[in-house]
Amino acid sequence: MLIDILVFLVGLCLGSFVNVVIYRLPRPDLSVCRPLRSLCPSCRTQIAWYDNLPLISYILLLGRCRHCRSPISLRYPLVELICGGLTLAVFLKTGLTVRFAAELYLVLALVAVTYIDLDEMIIPDAITLPGLIIALAAAVVAPDLKLIGPWLGGKVMVWGVTNYRWLSLIGSVSGLILGGGTIWVIFQAYYLWRKEEGIGGGDFTLLAMIGAFLGWRAVPLTIFWGSFLALAAAVAVAVREGGFQARMKMPFGPFLSLAALIYLFFGERILRWYLGPG
User: Fold this and answer.
1) CA 101 to CA 109: how far, in whole Å?
2) Rg (CA), the chain
3) Looking at beta carbons, which pairs linking 1-5 to residues 24 or more positions away fall under 8 Å?
4) Percent of the chain having pLDDT more than 70?
5) Residue 50 DSSP symbol
6) 3-state DSSP helix/strand/coil percent for the chain, to nearest 5?
7) Which residues pair with 64 in a beta bridge?
8) 17-47 pLDDT tens trace
9) Pair 84, 9: CB distance under 8 Å
10) Is residue 18 within 8 Å of residue 83, measured between CB atoms?
11) Does the pLDDT of residue 198 top 70, yes or no?
12) Which of 28, 43, 85, 275 could form a disulfide with 68, with the two C-beta atoms 3.0–4.6 Å apart?
């Protein structure tokens, strides 16, 4: 239990950094690394270390800046809490392994992508492209046969490939290609139909990263669940606003991210339930 608490606290600190990424990365006048200390968005005063403790400082300051008393968004402690919970969940799933480090990057990246896409309608390549490299490296260093799955794994083994690292890497590369390729096909089909872009370019690399981390079997389920969640959200917005708007714009990244998290923690169980034993 003490180890679990420590991992959760580390996750809270990582969540504090994710807040920095969410706020600074889309802004060309700011850097994730500079300035080193966080600033109040309202008065631009540097925040002291004792006012920047995850969760605790927000509670002690009653959600306000110590200097200008401007309210601090509830999003900051919420992101910290989400990242703390996800860090602990990944640790309980994998233990302290190389796979833990890889999947930790994935979940934190998905949280950052979600909020950046909600705010700015963009998905930065600075998050997803390094994720592709990390996913492929993890597939080799910490091979996972779930990336390739029994069907494709069986086909490849018939061709004489039996090394676990190669099988894992093939599964990761297949997920990368299927993820990015599927979004590209959807993009092209919508453009031919409507003569306009219906999906952002960042969704290419996002789903490619998800496929590289989780394997090719995660791609169709992520797209299906993400589309279902996006449709449910669109219906909720339409009900609130009194009808659908012809040009309604909605970021797809948050829904793909949530669907990927569902697959990460429950995907294998769902596949076994759906496909049956063996």
Assistant:
1) 12
2) 20
3) 4/88, 4/91, 4/92
4) 93
5) G
6) 70, 0, 30
7) 71
8) 999 999 989 988 778 877 667 777 778 778 8
9) yes
10) yes
11) no
12) 43
Question: What's the burial of 252, exposed, middle or buried (CB within 10 Å: 0-12/13-18/19+)?
Answer: buried
Q: How far is residue 220 from each of residues 31, 75, 114, 183, 254, measured CA to CA in Å?
A: 35, 31, 20, 11, 16
For residue 64, the SS3 value is: strand
Tokens 């492929």 -> residue: 136
CB 79 within 8 A of CB 65: no
**CB–CB of 9/81 below 8 Å?**
no
User: What's the burial of 122, exposed, middle or buried (CB within 10 Å: 0-12/13-18/19+)?
Assistant: middle
Do 133 and 106 contact (CB within 8 A), yes or no? no
Residues in a beta bridge with 105: none
Helix axes 202-214, 218-241, angle to 10 degrees: 140
Decide if 131 contacts 175 (C-beta within 8 A). no
Rounded Cα–Cα distance for residues 66 and 43 (Å): 10
Residue 278: pLDDT band with limits 50, 70, 90: very low
Q: In the block, which residue shows the tokens 């966080």? A: 38
The DSSP code for 203 is: H
- Output phi, psi for 196, to 5 deg: -155, 160
Q: What pLDDT does 188 receive? A: 77
**What's the token pair of residue 11?**
């996750």
- Beta-bridged to residue 71, according to DSSP, are 64
Query: How many Å from the N-terminal Cα to the C-terminal Cα in the chain?
Result: 35
Among the listed ranges 92-101, 117-126, 207-216, 234-243, which one has the minimum average pLDDT value? 234-243
